[in-house]
Amino acid sequence: MDAIWNSFVEWLRGFGAQAGQQAAEAGVQLGGQVAEGVGAAASQLDMTSLLALAAALGWASGFRLYAVVFLVGSMGLAGWLPLPDGLQVLQHPAVLAASGALLFVEFFADKIPGLDSLWDIVNSVVRVPAGAALAAGVFGADNATMAVVAALLGGTLAASSQAAKTTTRAAINTSPEPFSNIAMSLVEDGLVIGAVWLATNHPVVFGILLLIALVLMWIVT
After folding, report:
1. Angle CA(181)–CA(210)–CA(111) in degrees, nearest 5?
2. SS3 for 113?
3. Each residue of 122-136: pLDDT tens digit?
4. Are the C-beta atoms of residues 118 and 181 closer than 8 Å to each other?
5. Do 195 and 63 contact (CB within 8 A), yes or no?
6. Which residue numbers in the chain have pLDDT < 50?
């Protein structure tokens, strides 16, 4: 009886070890497939897509810098958007926590008349260089020439959207009711999401709409 029991125990041990080894091999294989899938998606970001992404990050930063950082970082962490090497820092938990906290504050501060203009003035010194840095990060250190071009592009677009935003808010604040401020702020929230989505899915369409938006912003400013 003891011999039968010992044989059964040894069989269970052997079965457990074999099952554990198979599970580990399956995990490694699955991880490799995921890495290959992400790598393949990243390789699909051609020069047009990268330029569109750089332009979107710079332009949207003039409206909502912290929303851009949090949104792109969250998409990268979730695997929805394969981030270039220069932008992978955005998906770090510390960066997500800081940008998320600032986004929470900005979401409400930007919808209060008077306080929104003050918030814009305080953040104007951050949005333009941050927009340039985010745009440059799309190309990273591997392509220094394009990184400089992207930085100039991103900084210029951030300055344009920042100027249009500040001018528009100054005009809206002459109205005593708060609803126009809230409506405009929600529009800007939507513009950030729409710009990132269009740039990553339909870069050519985004480029055309961006040119139209720039003309309108220059007229408003």
Report:
1. 15
2. coil
3. 888 899 999 999 999
4. no
5. no
6. 5, 8-9, 12, 15-17, 19-20, 23-24, 26-28, 30-43
